[in-house]
Design brief:
The chain is an alpha+beta fold. Helix content is 41%, strand content 13%. The strands form 2 sheets. A 5-stranded antiparallel beta sheet has the order 8-5-7-6-9, with helices on both faces. Strands 2-1-3-4 form a 4-stranded mixed beta sheet, covered by helices on one side. The protein is elongated.
Length: 420
């Protein structure tokens, strides 16, 4: 009995299985399969009671869940896609789990509303973007010195994670979002330029403009029925002035920064320029041409407890959480915070652009700010200016290992990937 795959041929999980089979030299028969019909038949539900695809029919019986199918095929194939040692096999499994349990949930939250599969929830989408940027940062750091995720050859880890990232790279990760993940971009393109991938992904067109979900249509209002007129109640006795003043709603407090003279520099325009262009050739010249020294200031931050930082992903989450608590600062600031070193010896530092002449209250009221030493920078000083430019460009550092960015994007217009 041949192996038969039950799933639509354009299903990403199906393609993941077929690409793997191609690498392994395993023949798999495919059939025409229609979701909503074929997956609800009595025969199919006997193979997978969940009614989900893909399902692989084998001589021993059915297998569902795509990664279980991949591992089954890997044991039958002519090539080793599971690593040379038990340790490498575990690391392959690790990245397969990363693909399904870490990447897939936020990717679905972002993409499903675009595809019309679930209602659009902007807050959930923004959180998903932030989660994915943090995950891509971890991945980018891992791939900085590697061609493949595990070992010297392609493995199930590369196939699984590559296919899971495909809709992100083609639908929502535009050039501005991709530019900071150079190692991940290189790996992704290498994966999809393999002949085995090209058979099932013949054309790869990277995202040019981020797709967005349609706003939900307003509910049609029920026709109003005219109610019988009721007698107007007699006006209540007028309260005395003291009581009226007491019950007035307190006006929302304005930031002291809103009272500053208007600046010649548009912070949102700077954020767009930085987000959508190469940093050194375009963004930095724009910055120094438009920088308003009377209306803005620069500060350097350095984490006080670097000796406690041992894992990149935990360090990234530490700063990511800080950024998420800086919602009030979005209108008045911009930051680029980076991780340096190698596990278990890491450090955090960054540069910040603030409205005004000092660290604003919007930063000070966030408890995380107390975990950092702050030093004011002078952009007219050559060393300070170089530090600002290096932190914005994420390069130019000497004597240290650059592990990766956390995310400068929380305080950037239009691409607020850590915006709750």
């Amino acid at each position: 009995m041949a192996l038969t795959l039950l799933a639509p041929k354009d299903n990403l999980r199906s393609k993941k299985i077929l690409v793997t089979a191609k690498y392994l030299g395993v023949d798999i028969e495919t059939v025409d399969f229609k979701m909503g019909t074929d997956n609800k038949t009595k025969e199919f539900l006997q193979l997978n009671p969940l009614g989900k695809v893909p399902v692989l029919k084998t001589p021993e019986g059915p297998i569902f869940e795509s990664h279980a199918i991949l591992r089954f095929l890997a044991q039958k194939g002519k090539r080793n896609l599971m690593g040379k040692t038990p340790y490498e096999a575990a690391i392959v499994d690790q990245w397969m789990e990363f693909a399904s349990t870490q990447i897939e949930p936020p990717a679905s939250t972002w993409l499903y509303p675009i595809w019309g599969l679930i209602p659009n929830n902007p807050a959930a989408t923004n959180k998903a973007k932030g989660d994915l940027i943090r995950l891509l940062t971890v991945l980018n750091t891992h791939l900085a010195s590697r061609t493949w995720l595990v070992g010297e050859r392609i493995s199930l880890a590369d196939i699984s994670l590559g296919v899971n990232l495909h809709p992100l790279y083609t639908a929502v990760l535009d050039a501005g979002m991709r530019k900071k993940f150079t190692h991940t971009n290189r790996w992704f393109l290498t994966v999809f330029n393999q002949p085995e991938f090209k058979e099932y992904f013949p054309e790869l067109t990277l995202c040019v403009k981020t797709a967005v979900a349609k706003d939900p249509e307003p509910k049609a209002e029920a026709p109003k029925t005219e109610a019988p007129k009721a007698e107007k109640p007699k006006p209540a006795p007028k309260k005395d002035e003291e009581e009226e003043d007491f019950e007035e709603k307190e006006p929302k407090a304005k930031s002291a920064l809103d009272l500053l003279p208007k600046s010649s520099m548009d912070l949102d325009e700077w954020k767009r320029t930085y987000s959508n262009n190469d940093t050194r050739p375009v963004a930095l010249p724009w910055l120094w041409e438009h920088f308003d020294a009377e209306g803005y200031c620069w500060f350097f931050c350095d984490y006080k407890y670097n000796n406690e930082l041992q894992k990149v992903f935990m360090t990234s989450n530490l700063v990511g959480g800080w950024f998420q608590r800086l919602d009030k600062l979005r209108k008045y600031g911009f930051g680029s915070v980076l991780i340096f070193g190698e596990e278990p010896n890491l450090s955090i530092s960054g540069v910040w652009l603030f409205r005004g002449k000092e660290i604003p209250e919007e930063m000070k009221v966030c408890d995380d700010s107390e975990l950092y030493n702050w030093t004011k920078l002078d952009h007219t000083n050559a060393d300070d200016k170089k530090k600002i430019e290096d932190f914005l460009a994420w390069d130019g550092f000497t004597g240290v290992t650059f592990s990766g960015p956390v995310s400068y994007t929380h305080l950037r217009a239009h691409e607020t990937v850590l915006d709750l």
